[in-house]
Input
Amino acid sequence: MRRLAPILSLTLVSLYLGCAAHPTIADHTLKKGEKYYGYTLSTENIFPVMFYRFGLSDVSDLGLRVGVPIYGSGIDYSRTLFEKGKKRDVLNVGWSLSPNSSYDFTYFKFRDGKKEGDTIYWAFRSMIIPDGSYAESGQSTRIGFLLGLYRKSRFGIEAGYFHDFASMPITKLFSSFDYSDTTTWGTRFLDYPHVSDGGLPTEYSRLTGLSLRVSFNLSAKKEENGKLPKP
Output
């Protein structure tokens, strides 16, 4: 039971957060036929999510994700719109399966670091959750930013937040907020409850917009192991 306790706790935390999952994209523009795969750990899905990307052309690739047991699974498409020197812009569109399943539209801006394989990036993301995770769910539309970096093409870290402006004022992001306080806020937020009757976050909760993740690129390790020794 002692060994099971941490696993059960992580599972409950994952369900409690009820976050919407997101794609993991490549740290460089994939060539046609190139494979890019690994796994991601995140607050969105406590259990690993395996990802696999395949270069459709020299400027576009398709991504597939499989979560454990299923949450975090999804499909997405990336296209490099601009690439010059150490800079590139990428557009990504995708769909993710989670307690708050979502459609995502993300514009990435990458810049390579001084060391080979190092990349930093930021992105603007809009996210639509058609139906949330509680009985009377509605649609949540979120927009926000994310920041990330890859180290030596082996692993990456990323943090972001995506806000639903209809559900609460952005000024209350870091403080308590009672959507049912009609004396202060009127009735504009009554249709956007942050917590369901069961106590879980809804698609309107600020927790749903939080994204923290670490990704591991297993294909980079395979490529390094497959290199011939220098003469």
Observations:
- The radius of gyration is 19 Å.
- The chain has a mean pLDDT of 86.
- The helical segments are 4-17, 182-185, 218-225.
